[in-house]
Automatic annotation (TrEMBL):
This is Cytochrome c-553. Functions as an electron carrier between membrane-bound cytochrome b6-f and photosystem I in oxygenic photosynthesis. SUPFAM superfamilies: Cytochrome c. InterPro entries: Cyt_c-like_dom, Cyt_c-like_dom_sf, Cyt_C6, Cyt_C_IC. It comes from Vitrella brassicaformis (strain CCMP3155). Its main location: plastid. Transmembrane segments: none annotated.
């Protein structure tokens, strides 16, 4: 039962005061609000108790509340551990801002004149291929965003022409192409 309580509490802790979410245990839309002054009497614990009692019929209310209070104490630690693990094992592209598919469209209309196929018609050695991006220190989404926004040498700045979102999409596309050896 404590495992269910921790899972229910994690679901509830993840919600902010005004956000609705779907509980993985109950499937209902729940709202939670944490109150620092009375952690044992928060709607968080009450919602957890309701979910727990619904998921495990015949559960005593006091036992469910106790399990949820324990789960509430453990939830921040478990959440932090899960987030740390995800960030350690997930590829950079999973956290990158931007949509590579939209970036391809924007790239085709704004960048392909000089960078078709990941090449560079102005300075042949400065391609968008992985090795060149690494050599010139432009091998992350953030660095590509900076370069596209501000320009450098013969490359014009696109910060005034494209939205921030468009630039993020282009950067995601360039890094996706380069790291996947798709150029």
């Amino acid at each position: 039962m404590k495992l269910f309580a921790v899972l229910a509490t994690l679901s509830l802790v993840a919600a902010s005061a005004n956000e609705a979410f779907v509980s993985p245990l109950g499937g209902n839309i729940l709202r939670a609000q944490r109150t620092a002054s009375q952690p044992q009497r928060t709607p968080l614990v009450e919602e957890c108790q309701t979910v727990l009692m619904g998921a495990l019929p015949g559960t005593d209310a006091d036992e469910a509340r106790s399990a949820c209070e324990e789960g509430a104490k453990m939830a921040p630690l478990v959440s932090a551990m899960a987030l740390g693990l995800m960030s350690a094992i997930a590829p950079q592209a999973a956290f990158a801002a931007g949509d590579p598919e939209l970036g391809e469209i924007i790239f085709s209309g704004n960048c392909a004149a000089c960078h078709a196929g990941g090449n560079n018609v102005v300075q042949a050695e400065k391609t968008l291929k992985k090795e060149a991006l690494e050599t010139y220190g432009v091998n992350t989404v953030d660095k590509v965003i900076y370069q596209v926004t501000n320009g450098k040498n013969a490359m014009p700045a696109f910060g005034g022409r494209l939205s921030e979102e468009d630039i993020q999409d282009v950067a995601a596309y360039v890094i996706d192409q380069a790291t996947g050896d798709k150029w």
